[in-house]
TrEMBL record:
Highest taxon of source: Eukaryota
GO molecular function term, any single one: ATP binding
Signal peptide: none
Sequence ranges assigned to domain Protein kinase in this UniProt record: 1-113
Residue ranges of coiled coil: none
The protein's name: Protein kinase domain-containing protein
Length: 113
């Protein structure tokens, strides 16, 4: 198994993801997961981005009512200058509170951090 953190650009991408989370602090826990922390784990050279777990399911015909909530969430993210860059059903979870975006490395910075 390859150590992903030693691959070129991975740590920089994860650090950028954490900066985007910090930039979107006002949206954490509502339309994106809460950033719990980030940094290197022990002295192992492993960089982690830890977020809250969003319990839910991916959009389907059963959860079609969540699409307007997902669109609203995406607009809120855009207003703060961030472009998600990887919008697809696999990156959206429908929770009891509405729609929450998972935040993979696909988060891209528009004019934000």
């Amino acid at each position: 198994m390859a150590d992903t953190c030693k691959q070129r650009g991975v740590v920089a991408s994860l650090k950028h993801e954490a900066l985007v989370y910090e930039h979107l602090a006002a949206l954490q826990g509502t339309v994106i997961p809460v950033l719990l922390g980030c940094g290197f784990w022990r002295d192992e050279g492993i960089f982690l981005v830890a977020t809250s777990i969003v319990e839910g399911e991916h959009p389907s015909s059963d959860t079609a009512a969540a699409y307007p909530a997902a669109e609203k969430a995406l607009r809120m993210i855009h207003v703060m200058g961030v472009v998600h860059g990887d919008i697809r059903e696999d990156n959206i979870l429908v929770s009891r509170q509405g729609a929450a975006f998972k935040a993979p490395v696909g988060l891209q910075n528009g004019s934000g951090p």
